[in-house]
Design brief:
The chain has about 350 residues and is an alpha/beta fold. The chain is about 30% helix and about 25% strand. The longest helix is centred in the middle third of the chain and has 17 residues, at about 170-185. Bound molecules: iron/sulfur cluster.
């Protein structure tokens, strides 16, 4: 994938992509060799080439063939230090966590750890501490505890609450929960966005209900376009690419913010780009393109032809820039921990919070 910094510099000249971005794309794809008994690690990272910028990453460990290695607090590429990390902790499934300096709260409020079925999902590899918050009282208590624990007056400053779970079996149950989230937010003086990552919200009636608790942001979990029945849990796989476009269009018509998740490294570039082009007109915020992270030999089986090679990702990055560049939408570094973009998009610097 990548041999050393000089290799990244050569690729940088060839592809017009900053070498720092190339290093981080390769790191995200390869994961780390590490002599610790943890399958996934989350941490803050500073590249030696950019010591003033801190990023957040979650990587798979125990990748024996990765050229990247974790030694104490150093990340080495073929033996040479390229970055240091801190605040490392095992990536267990937790009930909630902050991003963007406590202005964005992510909630795994429907026990995400119990959800299974997507071959790339790390749930079965992780420890979990995310009990279900099914009743309104549970949400009230959780938000009150957050406010107290972080010495906040209330949740006025919270811009969005992201509900991130694939485990709602029916649309009406998801909507019921989201209505409760809105009620609990209002109780804490929070009028921020409810952001829902899911494939379960699909009907026009469901979209009307979501619009009623606006501001609302729907991230449709598209993930991939080939072998969907094999790679994804059934409720996700049932949605065809054409239906996904219809769902996002219905949402956008109701002034719901729209985007989708897509995993780069599962489809051939031809298939991916053909479908992604259809998503451009129904997408109103930059989509979450995530680099495929394999954690074991089984997950390795699903890596697309060519996707063990850095050029695969640099090609996809350039093509996606061509697709989405004219929309004016741009990646936000703080909202994606395994993106194709870190410090630049095409020839533009990416600014703003990174954590
Ligand atoms: S929907 Fe798939 S990726 Fe999401 S939590 Fe469930 S198994 Fe994991």
């Amino acid at each position: 994938m990548l041999s050393d910094r000089a290799h990244a510099e050569r690729l940088s000249r060839e592809w017009g992509v900053h070498a720092d971005d190339i290093m981080l794309i390769a790191l995200n794809s390869c994961g780390l060799q590490a002599d610790i008994d943890v399958s996934r690690l989350r941490f803050r990272i500073r590249l030696d080439s950019r010591p003033d910028e801190q990023l957040y990453m979650i990587l798979s460990l125990g990748r024996a063939h990765s050229p990247f290695e974790l030694v104490d607090h150093e990340i080495r590429l073929n033996g040479k230090r390229i970055a240091i990390i801190d605040s490392a902790e095992e990536d267990d499934a937790v009930l909630g966590y902050w991003r963007k300096d406590r202005r964005v709260l992510t909630l795994n409020s429907n026990s995400r750890s119990q959800c299974i079925g997507c071959v790339f999902c790390p749930n079965t590899l992780e420890d979990a501490s995310d009990p279900r918050l099914t009743a309104l009282d549970d949400l009230h208590s959780y938000f009150s505890a957050l406010v107290e624990n972080f010495s906040l007056a209330d949740m006025t400053e919270v811009e969005r609450v992201t509900v991130c779970t694939g485990c709602f079996k029916h649309e009406h149950l998801a909507l019921q929960h989201l209505q409760q989230v809105r009620e609990a937010m209002t109780e804490q003086n929070c009028s921020g966005i409810i952001h829902f990552l899911s494939s379960i919200l699909t009907t026009t009636q469901g979209m009307d209900a979501a619009a009623d608790i606006s501001p609302f942001h729907l991230t449709l979990t598209a993930e991939c376009f080939t072998q969907r029945g094999v790679i994804l849990k059934e409720s996700k796989a049932n949605l065809t690419p054409a239906e996904m476009v219809r769902v996002l269009g219905d949402a956008a018509e109701r002034s719901i913010m729209t985007d989708f998740t897509y995993i780069v490294g599962l489809d051939s570039p031809e298939v991916a780009l053909q479908h992604l082009a259809d998503f451009v007109p129904v997408t109103t915020t930059f989509p979450r393109f995530q680099i495929y992270q394999s954690h074991n030999n089984l997950m390795d089986l699903f890596i697309a032809d060519g996707a063990r090679d850095i050029d695969f990702y640099l090609y996809m990055r350039r093509e996606i820039e061509d697709l989405f560049g004219p929309t004016g939408l741009r990646p936000k570094p703080w909202e994606n921990y395994r993106p194709l973009w870190y410090f630049t998009f095409a020839d533009e610097p990416l600014r703003g919070e990174r954590i």
